[in-house]
Amino acid sequence: MPGTDTLTSAATTGAPSVAPHTQATDALPPGRGLPGWWSFIEDRILLNVATILMMAAIGFMFYEASSRSLLSESHWWAEELVRFLVVWSVLLSLGVGTRHGHYIRMDLLLNMMPHRVRLAFAWLNSLIGLAFSVLLVIAGFQEVAHLQAIGMFTESNLDLPLWTVRLVLPLGGVLYGFAFVGNIILLLRGHDPDPPVEGENL
Hints:
Elements: H1 2-13, H2 18-25, H3 36-71, H4 76-99, H5 107-110, H6 115-150, H7 162-166, H8 168-188
């Protein structure tokens, strides 16, 4: 058909079109702008460690609930350990979730904006997120140094040095910052870090 031939030739010769532009320009490379080794660390190591920590937290919660219901015994250390495991799991995987776009955003509004406006908001989001990550790292290191200096331990009979537990704050800040660094690399290459998937354009 003549119409089909026209569309096919326009797509192959690089003529401006909405759908090819979205797929070609905004197509994200493997790792979403990060080196392959970093994507391997995130997807194969960090996610698995975070999953193990969350499963351990669920296991300890089940043990504590069963102990209360069946034996009428409560273990303070279990409640505290569950909190630590959940916080560690979330902060270790926060950057990975952000890099993969698993967060709440204004999809309806963003998808109505032109491509350049979307990129401008992506720059703003990446710079603000990176600044927040830097603040989290600085504040986390200050808190860890203070807790290590005063020698404070956890409240329960776990008797863990509290600075080792709070070490996840600067560590999580670094991992979170790498997600925004990856977005900035993509923006410098002309890609949209969070392009709308097929069927989301209005």
